[in-house]
Structure formats: C-alpha cells, structure tokens
Amino acid sequence: MADVFFISDHHFGHKHIIDFESRPFGSTEEMTETMIAKWNAAVGKDDVVFHLGDFSFLNKEKTSAILGRLNGTKTLIMGNHDRGRSRTWWLDAGFEQVSEYPIVYGGFFLLSHEPMYMNKHMPYVNIHGHIHGQKYEGNQYFNVSVEHWDYTPVSFGEIKKRVVPSEEHG
Question: How many Cβ atoms from other residues are within 10 Å of residue 74's Cβ?
Fold first, then answer.
C-alpha cells in the first residue's frame, strides 16, 4: 500500500533562499541534489506526495528534470511563488495534479500553502507551508516547510501521531 507524504517550500533554483532561511547549502546545485536525495530516501516509487507550494524558481525544462527524478505521484497545491505560472504549466512540468486552491484531505486535514485562519472550535488541522522556519502554536497547524523536516517529506502517519490524540489512532 502506498504511503502519503507532505512537504513544501523547496524553492528549487532560488539562490537567495539559502541566506534568507539559513539553509545549510553552499550553492543551489548542492541544495537541489541534497533535497532530491532526501525526498527519494523517504518516498517510494508508488507513494503519493502533496507538495504544498513554492516548488521551483527554474524554467520548465529544469523544473521538469527535477520532477522526473523525484519518486512518487506528485500533487501541487500552488504557493505564492508558483502562481505566476499557470496550472497547465505545472502539469506540463510533471505534476500529476495541480490545485490553485486549498483542498480537504481525509475529511479532516486542510491542505494549503499559506496557513489558514483556524479557531479552536474548528475540527480541522491545517497542513501548510509558506512560513518556512516559523511555527504557529497549537495542534491545528502543521508546518511542512522543508526547514522543519530536514528537507525531507513527512509522512501522513507522522503528522497524525503529532496532531491526533493517541486514543484516536486506529
């Protein structure tokens, strides 16, 4: 059975993100190769990955080459840096599915690029990216930006362990 993973904010090809987020890479090439290796070490060929935005700053040819090297079936929820390109551009580059808007996963998880407004009475968890190394307080937010997960996609099982009380696991 396929596993499901979540990740965001790779910023492939974005030189300045290394300094902006104090990423431990000497170049965009080192960042790209390390992030591809970490993705493929976690994600199998038949697994599913939801990328929650800000995937690549590169042209379509280079973006497609990276996507072709990454394991799994890949869905993009477009981030603020992805929206300058059309949904079709991202599909042509190699994502199997692309959404311009947040989606509900598993009836309980709101997948979005930017954190969504959530109050304590809402029965959902917002899995998001966008804020990189920052973190929202509370169990209703789960940041999957690469900086929080050693540049590795995080499994749905791991997310559920951290946000759903243990007696609800089943």
Answer: 23
- Cα dihedral across residues 146, 147, 148, 149: positive or negative: positive
pTM of the predicted structure, to 2 decimals? 0.93
pLDDT at 145 over 70: yes
Instruction: Give me Rg for the CA atoms of the chain.
Output: 15
Position 169 scores a pLDDT of 46
Per DSSP, the three-state class of 73 is strand
CATH superfamily, domain 4-168, is Metallo-dependent phosphatases (3.60.21.10)
Give CA angle at 124 (130, 102), nearest 5°: 45
Strand partners, 12: 56
Question: What is the predicted pLDDT for the residue at 166?
Answer: 56
Residue type, 13: G
In this predicted structure, the answer to whether residue 44 has a pLDDT above a threshold of 90 is yes
Domain ranges of the chain: 4-168
In angstroms, rounded to a whole number, what is the distance separating the alpha carbons of residues 141 and 135?
A: 8
- Within 10 angstroms of residue 169's Cβ, the number of other Cβ atoms is 9
Per-residue pLDDT averaged across 80-91, rounded?
A: 96
Task: Say how far residue 162 (Cα) sits from the centre of its chain.
Answer: 17
d(CA 11, CA 63): 11
